[in-house]
Structure formats: C-alpha cells, structure tokens
Amino acid sequence: MVISVLSGKGGTGKTTVAAALSELAQHVTQIDCDVDAPNLSLFHRGTDVERKNFYGSMKARINKDLCTFCGRCEEICKFGAIRDLTVNQFQCEGCGACTLVCSQNAICLEEEKTADTFLTETGKGIISRAEMEIGSDGSGKLVTQLRTNAKKITQKDSLQIIDGSPGIGCAVIASITDTDVALIVTEPTRSGLDDLKRILELSEHFETQVLICINKYDINLDMTAQIKRFAEEKKLFVAGEVPFDPLVMKAVNALKPITDFEESTARKAIEDMWNFITHVI
Q1: Which among 248, 21, 276 has a CA at the least distance from the CA of 29?
Q2: How far is CA 148 from CA 16, 130, 187, 265, in A?
Q3: What does R_g of the chain's alpha carbons equal in angstroms?
Q4: Backbone angles phi, psi at 129, to 5 degrees
C-alpha cells in the first residue's frame, strides 16, 4: 500500500501530516519526494545505512585540444552557457545542441552528479531521501530513484508513505504514479481550493483514489464549507479536518511530530483521519 501526501501549493502542512501519519502507522517506509526542500528526516532522527551518488543531468564538456575555435557552439547555445570556450555548468542544460554543430567532435555530454540518495534507519522504519547538490534542480527522475530504493527494502504489502512535492510538476507526477491513495492536503482559502482542483485533475489522470485533508479548517469556515461542497460534487471523501493548533509550530520548532504532544487538538484530528483512512482503504 502506497499513500502519497500531496498539496497543490507549499505551506499547507503536508509534511506535518505525513510525519504524523508515519508515527501512527508505526513501522512504515517513508519516502521524502519533496527533493527541492526535503525535511521529513528532521522529524525522525536516524542512521544512514546507505548513501549513493545520483547522476541526474548531462553537462557539455569541451576538449580544447580538438577545438578549432570556430565559435559555433557559443552561437548556437540558447542558454548563454558557453563563453570563451568555457562551459558555465550552472547555465548548461545539457541539450546537446553544441555537440551537433561542432565539426571537430570536440564537445561531448557527460553525466553530472546532482544529488546524494540515502536510506536512513529510524528505529520505526526506513526513510528514503536525497540531498541535492548546490544549484541542482529536483526532478521526476530523482523521485523515481528514491521510490525504487524504498521498494528494494520494503516487504510486499507493507505500507509506504510519500511526502510529495507541492504543485503539479514533474516531481509530483513521479510521486503519484503507481500509488494507491493520494491524500491531498489543502487549506481553507481561495488559492487553496484552486490548487486543490489542479492537483485533483492530475490525480484523476492517473486514476488514483483521492482523499482530502483540510488543514486549519477553522480559520475560514466559509471556505471550508466550499471545499466540502466541491468534494461532495466530485464524490470525494474529506478524510480529515485539522484545526489550527499553536502546538504545531511548537512541534516544528522542536523537530518533533505533532503526535508527540498529547494535548494537541491537531494530533487528535490526525488520529481520527488515520482511523478513517485505514477503514476506507
């Protein structure tokens, strides 16, 4: 069983929910697919049991011994990555146009390391995660690798919880592919509803079962009612309504999941949501 915790925008509380559900599920494999800003491991300290280089892009390299200094590569590069026969690695997109126009075969594309991938043992399960190199971009390819790494050490029929990237981009597509449930975390604002609609379209494309979590539902009850009406129209379950709780910020600052705070109203709501999810799926 794979549950992807997603959101149409950043800042909705997606990681807070994912971390709490992982605690409630006990022994679970977690996958931090928010590769541009990974933080799930901050809530679950552990020991790295595997570390590997990830090569996710190609960069141009110029062999100046073969170069005739014609300048065609500099003219053809649409990204301005080549100046004075030197390739700016931060601007090069690895498109390969320069290799095609070089009559001397002096330019080639080489793989570039863009991240380190880790399997981290927490005592309550494994986290599959990555740390990006400076200037590197997150990609669906990296997310797919993290999921592959997790699959290798996860027993069949075991639970996986994915903390996905916000939005509807490539990394999100890789996060939602081949998942059983997409738990979409939204907030009671106009933009929250609009972003919910966008990511719902993506989920429908992959025919993934969708559940909705309305975080901080009580800060705008009118918008919460609109989101619930929209869910009803789409025949979707609102799995949970989590109230605004100042203890959530305290938990984040302490790098602890909200489930560690027994008096938390958000904890109780997430526990109720988890019970609902286990019955639905």
Answers
A1: 21
A2: 24, 13, 31, 36
A3: 22
A4: -150, 175
Residue located via tokens 């594309």: 109
Confidence of residue 281 (pLDDT cuts 50, 70, 90): confident
Surface-to-core class of residue 17, CB atoms within 10 Å of its CB (0-12 exposed, 13-18 middle, 19+ buried): buried
> What whole-number distance in Å separates Cα of residue 60 and Cα of residue 108?
6
pLDDT value of position 42 = 87
Side chain identity at residue 252, one-letter code: V
Nearest CA to 146 among 129, 162, 159, 131? 129
pLDDT tens digit sequence for 26-54: 789 999 998 888 888 888 878 999 999 99
Task: Residue 36: count other Cβ atoms within 10 Å of its Cβ.
Answer: 16
Residue type, 174: A
pTM of the model: 0.88
pLDDT at 271 over 80: yes
With a cut of 90, say whether residue 85 has pLDDT above it. no
